[in-house]
Predict the structure.
Amino acid sequence: MTQFTGFTPQTIDFLWELRMNNHKAFMEENRQRYQTVLKEPFDCLTKELIQRIEEIGKGMPRQASISRINRDIRFSKDKSPYRPKRWMVLHDGKQAGTDWKCQPVFYFELTPEAYYTGMGLYDSTPAFLQAYRRKIDADTAAFLRIANGLKRAKELTADGESYKRQMGNGAHAPLVELWYQKKEITISEERPIDELLFSDKLCDHVLAEWKKMVPLFRFLREVSVG
């Protein structure tokens, strides 16, 4: 596999065209194009991120899962057969099957309009969220330092739904309360399609953004549900 040198404008053209022509005939006609402009560079980026992940801290996850271009449409109202986007997640690989979705992961996602560098949980179960709030209560000052660090990184956004009802007694500082109320825990940077995406510096940028998320990642990984 060659070294990652950046995506190309042809990558984005393909994603737009797939969105507008989401059917088997288009994919069959453009299968080699998909391999060349999307799958191969995305795999190269993933491989480089795995190789360099410990630059942002020791003990980081090194198992990659990459989205498939085909969608599972068996139980979906949307019968579009393909995903006009691609993402990867880095997890520790210790869980069976897709159990990693209940643990914090780092991710990168590419769409026709934008790309995202983030960290969070795919499946924030009620049991995990209860343990998460207990951990905040146990050392609120430590969590406030984490939250302040993320706030200083102004390009990062705390995504995901929050509970509408008050969780706990509401006694925390406003910034801690923002995170305490979370139903889905995700933080990310969104960038429009730009020259960085087409550069060999993209991997450096992704790692730099992930590094800002490491304190929260470690906090979440230490949450004990049992």
